Amino acid sequence: MHRITLALFFSLALSACSINVTMPLFxxxxxxxxxxxxxxxxxxxxxxxxxxxxxxxxxxRSLLGGSPNTVxxxxxxxxxxxDDSSIVAVILKVNSPGGAVAATDSxxxxxxxxxxxxxxxxxxxxxxxxxxxxxxAAMACxxxxxxxxxxxxxxxxxxxxxxxxxxxxxxxxxAQILRTGPMKGDGLPIAPLNKEQLEYRQSMIDEAFxxxxxxxxxxxxxxxxxxxxxxxxxxxxxxxxAKENGLIDAIGTFDDAVTKAGQMAGASDASVVIxxxxxxxxxxxxxxDTKTEGGINLGVNLLERLGLDHAGSHLLYLWSPE
Length: 322
Fold this sequence. Notes:
By secondary structure, this protein is α/β, with parallel strands linked by helices. The protein has one domain (30-172, 183-286, 303-318): 2-enoyl-CoA Hydratase, Chain A, domain 1. It is 35% helix and 23% strand. The strands form four sheets. Strands 2, 3, 6, 8, 9, 10, 12, 13 and 14 form a nine-stranded mixed β-sheet that branches. Strands 7-16-11 form a three-stranded antiparallel β-sheet. A two-stranded antiparallel sheet has the order 1-15. Helix 2 (70-82) packs parallel to helix 3 (101-118). The model is unreliable at 1-27 and 292-300 (pLDDT under 50).
């Protein structure tokens, strides 16, 4: 019985199975973003772009549906706003523990490109969590405001390698790798990393960390690199500590972020809008969870929540997954 239980666990571990049921609210055709007003005002508009959940470039999957990945969701909204001259400012509403390094950097780069092309102010508003990759992406913004109960920071990077070699030995399972070089296949879970592989992975982590430091250095002009490195031990900071250490500009509400965006854009009476896939009969507020726009999620994909369903041997700008 013990061996059967181990075999079942081993099978699930390798297949990364999960039970996750979604009831789609729209068909499988590519959804179209629609604009709705959070606050009515003048013809000038402040666009709110949500950055929510674990950052990944892979769509979430379920038995009956899924939803666009984080990068796709941000880029679609930027593309829609790019040709709308009535958009005078952007608020990036962040509620994310971070995620994959490459996906995080893609969002950051796209935000910078949009800001460069449009030349309009971009404000980051930190809601519950703006940690690691969530904080990294926000460094593209001109001003950062955090809710007073927010935690942010977690400047750092890690890599996860799970070895099931011991479990395989218990099951009497042996695996052989035929490879072209000693580093090929070093992320496979059938064996622990050797010294050379560990050193190589650490060099990748160090390089990604230096990249993170550089992004914060560029975004927080009030801090020098030495100060940032002192803060970058992976911990999160409360809003008050983040303000004290120069990681954010102000503590405030979403209304404060709107006011600041209007002031920077010279349009204090601007309307506040959001692009969403939510059904037309759903009233939208700033707290509407855009992660369920495509359907009602009835289950939890643990690996997806951890950012490891596709991560495998990926580097992660991640704090505590949702």
